[in-house]
Amino acid sequence: MSELEKRGIDIQLFAEGDENATQQEQKPVENTNQEEAIKDDGDPIEVLRATAIQLGLNPEDVAIMTKKELQSQIDSAVTRAIKTREEKLKKQAEIEKMKEKGQYEQLLRQERKEALEDLKNTYLQAKGLPNEFGVLINVDPLADLSLTEAKEQLVSTLDSVAQKINELVEAKVNEKLKSLEAGSFTQSSNIPEALPKTRDELLSLPYEKQVEIFTKYPDLYNKLMQGG
Question: Whole-prediction pTM value?
Answer without folding.
Answer: 0.38
